[in-house]
Every structure is written in C-alpha cells, then in structure tokens.
Design brief:
about 240 residues; alpha/beta; eight-stranded parallel barrel; 9 helices
Length: about 240
C-alpha cells in the first residue's frame, strides 16, 4: 500500500482531516523563512491541539521538515515536539544525518533545469548512500536553492527509473487529480502532497481527504483484483 504523507499544516482542521481519512503521516515545515514554516512555539501549540482532538487515538506519523539547520537544534525540536521522524530537505550529508536521533526521510532533489542524465547520475549516488544507511528516500522537484513545496512537478520518467532501483517516495506537484497517474507511472513507495491540496494558499480539508482517497483507489487498481477489473474493462 502506498504511504501517504500530507505536508505543510498550519491549522488543526486539515490535520484531523488527514488523520481521519487514513493518511500515514502528517508533516510540519520547520525551516525558518519558508511560506508554510512554523516557529517552535507555533508547532508545539498546533500539535498539542491536534493530539487533544485525536482524543487518545493513534494518529499518523508526525514528521518535521528541516533544511540545513544545526543538528543539535533539530534534535532538540524532535524531543520537544514529540516528532516520529525528520525529513531532511537540503543537501545534508551522511555526517549530518548520523547525528539525527530520529528516523530519517531524505529528500533527493531533481532539478528541472538539469539534463535527464545528470539528474539520474547525481540522484543514484545519493540514493545509494542514504539507502545503505537505512534512510527512507523521497524524490522531489528541487530547483536551485529551493526546498520543495513549490508545486513544481519533477520528471516522472526520471522518477520511474529511480523507483525501479530504490524504494522511494514521490513529491512535487501532486494533487487529487494527478496522484493516480503518478502512482501508475512511477510506482513509488509513497506520495507526498502540499501545495496541491490547498485553496487560496491554505490547506483544504476536502482536498486533503480527496488526495488520500485517490491514493487508496489507485492502490486498489494495482491490487490483483484491481488488475482483473481493469483488464475486464479493456476487453469490454
């Protein structure tokens, strides 16, 4: 089953929508200066309200997005906020990653400005290093100097080639209308949405639910029964 992560929350209602729809992870941006970033105090307040409204239920994994911050600062926030994992979104190397005290999702950036061969070569080197260290991988569109959440789609052909060699998540420009096609073409281990589930720059609970439901529907189509249904429709 495809792992579903919804990213960039700033209010409780859409987080609860994600949890109730069956998302596997909810993620907060903790990189200072970004559009959806929360301060430590804001994140603490949001998570307290979210966990209170869950009413003791076990919710999705809570992930913090970081980008090149001091490792000690990241570890302190992991403990303070009770994060289940960190997602490293910058060019953090293996030495930096080794200092983390939480499981790691490592974003491997695909730069739309680079040729396909250059992206493949660079990504494969990084994915090999991080996968051998036990880090989980996420492919995202990463224009020079960006951290993701731009709504920009990466080359799914590149992503599909890489997903054949490494178990990886997929981010970048995904929304409820596009995610089934992405899953069919790339076959990622997981998908991650942010800007594609917003209305007027705010997370939209209806779009959050639609995204999760679209992923689950795509998973059913990929199941053995789903394949038989698909072939049956084609014969008809």
């Amino acid at each position: 089953m495809t792992r579903v992560q919804v990213c960039g929350f700033q209010t409780t209602e859409p987080m609860l929508a994600a949890a109730n729809a069956g998302a596997d992870a909810v993620a907060l941006v903790l990189i200072p200066g970004l559009k959806r970033s929360l301060s430590p105090d804001q994140a603490e307040e949001l998570l307290a309200d979210y966990r209170r409204q869950l009413g003791g239920r076990r919710g999705p994994e809570v992930v913090g997005l970081f980008g090149g911050q001091d490792a000690a600062e990241v570890n302190a926030l992991v403990e303070r906020l009770g994060l289940d994992a960190v997602q490293l979104c910058a060019d953090e190397g293996m030495g930096y990653a080794a200092q983390m005290r939480a499981p790691i999702y490592k974003v491997i950036g695909i730069d739309p400005a680079l040729p396909r061969a250059a992206n493949l070569m660079r990504a494969m080197v990084l994915m090999q290093r991080h996968s051998m260290a036990g880090h989980r991988l996420v492919l995202d569109a990463k224009p020079q100097g960006a951290y993701g959440g731009t709504g920009q789609r990466l080359d799914w052909g590149v992503a599909a080639d890489l997903a054949m060699a490494y178990e990886t998540g997929l981010a970048g420009g995904l929304n409820p209308d596009k995610v089934a096609e992405a899953i069919a073409q790339v076959r990622p281990a997981g998908v991650d949405a942010s800007s594609g589930i917003e209305t007027d720059g705010e997370k939209d609970p209806d779009k959050v639910r639609a995204f999760v439901e679209a992923v689950r529907a795509a998973d059913r189509e990929r199941s053995p029964g789903g394949l038989r249904r698909l072939l049956g429709r084609r014969r008809a």
